[in-house]
């Protein structure tokens, strides 16, 4: 009887030990995944900052005005040649 | 045999007592005293006990040191970087942002042990954009660790690392970028190489913008992958982002108007500020000369100076509406009250007050429209010095500003008890009292609003500000009518007219104080105005410092600058026109105000 219990307990013990090993292995993998994603997140943050900077640099009013005037031959509108439509007016 | 055995038993007691005879010869029989073996036994026992005690001590009682040492064998401390907060304009456009870069430095001893070939050094000099001789000097320096260049961009660093030079070291750091460059320089400021704010908002908001780098303990496996996060030693905190009140578009318009005006009127400098009438936000703040915050190699104090905020000047006639509104508010005069300004000369307190033209008997509205010093003096004679001082102080003149902007000037209003008759007269038309352009614009809010003043803000305002009533709403609206008449072909600011919009404002020309005396050749022309008059949206103040061309008055230099600025700003802000007048009439010889 005691012998049987011992066998069962030993089997359970070995099973537990193996599952601990497995759990640690899984955890290491998951931690590694988290780290990879965190690194990716940081890189994306940097990319986002870079894109915001690019937007601001390329969207500079000075640059837009330059292109509008020189490349596109545009001129600022003046009220003298603007017709304003007012609600209810003629 | 028997006898010898008997001998040994009797002669060597020690050995015999244990039943072991080392020798059968009685000559060789060892005679050891009994205590010696006990001593050996005791020493051995205590030695083991000491070992056991020590083991117990290091394992249980004082295990910290060894555990740390053990942990060091597999744990690593990882630095967690924190970035400085970004600065945005009110529409979410980035004005300042930090990106990771690297510093390139060299351990000179390692380098000297195995110096690079001349070609490699030449290549390095090219990548670092510095003369080869200078680079050689740094590489062969006496010091053990030398920075070759800081804030090198990542792609360049990758190329440098590929050269494989011995002793070369790169460290991660941050570089601040200012995409809007010189246009925003005086509003945003800049940081130094350590990413610490040095000027303007970067300095004012240093505490909240700065990030706090942290670190944590991790366990790495043999491939260098992190397999366990043991915990934080220091939590990293990223800097907080900051949204300013400034509008990039209006800022560009203001900057361009000032830049062109300074060139056109051959002035030394110029400045402009645009305020939002409803929120008290600073929408634009422009200065010329300026600098590029991305490249500050040859920076001078002149470029760095923020004339809107840190420079004070005596505004001149721009201050007349305050004297008049005070008298109106006290019920001492009405817009129809008339005053005799005579032939343009008026003696008070032993000094002569002059007007540029003889205006004769004119009403209050005309005093403002024609900018009569004598008229304003006569109105101020009805007011006490204390009342005037109180008015100036309430609108912020001479008071330390609370904008949260570094270096903001308070200006100067002398205590009213020391005012003599002529000083009071002078102050009624803006002389002998100094303030910054921003203070002037701020005070003008009382006319644009219903007589109340609200706090200024350099950050985007989300809540409706609470105003402090200075004059009644009725007085404010009467003043608006008067200042609108200034910007008419008959007024002193005919050049401030804007096609399609009703505009009001007041010119000012102040003689600069040179060597303690009013100069006859150096002036500051300024203009403060409100647009559009039907529903005020902006207060704009312009200052042109020391124009050296044929024109020097506020009406001739600041008013047209204001007009260009206002016209473009109104268009950019989609404000619908409130006037059908599109042909601007500027008289051939526009009326000029007296100094």
Order of SSEs of chain A, N→C?
HH
Oligomer: heterodimer
**CATH H level of the largest domain in chain B: which superfamily?**
DD-peptidase/beta-lactamase superfamily
Cα-based radius of gyration of chain B, to the nearest Å: 41 Å
Major beta sheet summary of chain A: none
Low-pLDDT residue spans of chain A:
none
- Return the CATH topology of the largest domain in chain B: Beta-lactamase
The DSSP helix count of chain A reads 2
Shape of chain A: rod-shaped
Helix and strand composition category of chain B: alpha+beta
Tell me the radius of gyration of chain A: 35 Å
What would your notes on this structure say?
The complex is a heterodimer of chains A (90) and B (595). By secondary structure, chain A is mainly alpha-helical. Chain A has one domain. Helix content of chain A is 76%, strand content 0%. The longest helix of chain A is centred in the middle third of the chain and has 57 residues, at 2-58. Chain A is rod-shaped, with a radius of gyration of 35 Å. In chain A, 2% of the residues are buried. Chain B is 35% helix and 22% strand. In chain B, helix 12 packs antiparallel against helix 21 (554-572). Chain B is α+β, with helices and mostly antiparallel strands. Chain B has 21 helices and 21 strands. Chain B folds into three domains: 2-60; 79-243, Penicillin-binding protein 2a (Domain 2) (Alpha-Beta Complex), CATH 3.90.1310.10; 248-291 and 305-572, 3-Layer(aba) Sandwich (Beta-lactamase), CATH 3.40.710.10. In chain B, a hairpin with a 5-residue loop joins strand 2 (87-88) and strand 3. In chain B, the strands form seven sheets. In chain B, strands 2, 3, 4, 5 and 8 form a five-stranded mixed beta sheet that branches. Residues 1-16 of chain B have low confidence and may be disordered. The radius of gyration of chain B is 41 Å and the shape is elongated.
